[in-house]
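request received
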Amino acid sequence: MAALREAMHPTRIPLSECPAAATLALAAEIPLKEFARKHSLLPFHRTVSPKDYDVDHGDPTGLYLIEHFGMRVWRQSMAMFCPECVAGDMESSKFAYWRRSHQLPGIPWCTEHGCQLANSTIGKKAFDDVPFPDLPAHYGYSEQEFIDVSLNPVIQRYADIANAFLNSERPTPLIHATFRIAEQAKKLQIRVGARGQKPTLTEKVLEQVPRNWIKTLYPDIENRVPGQFFNPIDNITTGLVADQGYALALAVLFDSSTEALNYWYADNDGLPLERKVQRSFGRDYWNSNTMFKLYVEHKGNHTSIGQALSIDPSYVRTELTAAGLPALGLVDISATAQAILAYQAGMPLEAACDSSGASRSEVEKLIRGGISKFSTALKKMSQH
Ligand SMILES: [Zn+2]
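response:
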């Protein structure tokens, strides 16, 4: 990589300005966006995102995202290839290449040939060169184990869903992902909180897939405490989990991958969210820390919070205003925040507005609804 970087950037610009992904795209003569989207695992690794979810996969304005997610290797020890693909490549173009779909966790077969993928014996160091016929390799499964894994319906759905994620254009907002998975789990009587008697998602997974397969995704699963949340999988209904968790959950929660993907990618309007919202998001929810954080993250924009939650923004407005978090929308946050914080520190309102250039009527309106929680939110926003 260092040598390639040197070759592509002979003028020695700072390293931070020529990250690995950009260097590779340049070398391959592919636009960076196309490189990230079509030739890296970024869309899979960025399936769900707690922030920046309006940045499309590979958008050059999110260069740090491309570097962070595009260059990630799932497991240090793996460089997977299909011997039949390598043979086919050699025939058609005299050299073979690594395929990203072969590097997805938990899919040990070639989607084109159906045969078991081989793992290079030197691990990811093999990526420094193109694959070639007779590249030293080993296989993860015996013939019988491979048949059991590749014919398993959950694993087949998992593979379809993971490949669909790999071809997606943008991530799903975390809050939205959490909500959808939890709603479907509840429907199937699966436990969505750490405490309770109902079976967990992990238990549903273990009932349906071979142990040796699930252990490749979650090596710690054998150490879980029966009846308790196994966090890497079960936390999906409360927060962010690793990439493969979303494909796995959907594969278990639906009988067909098409149905799962339709649910996952459905328009917000297409979901009967209003009724569920009232059930799931009670007063505690609007007063919760999660909501407070969301308010800060969206800079008090009720419309954008509504979009992130797939809830009607006017409902969001009513509930958040009642919870002491008024709409800021188009308000100049830095000026308004300064004025409110100065006022709270004891400066007369008029002086506070004048010194920061904030609109007095706007500030008055905002402090009318009670101020301590709101000013904490403003403080946090102005730190960003
Ligand atoms: Zn193949």
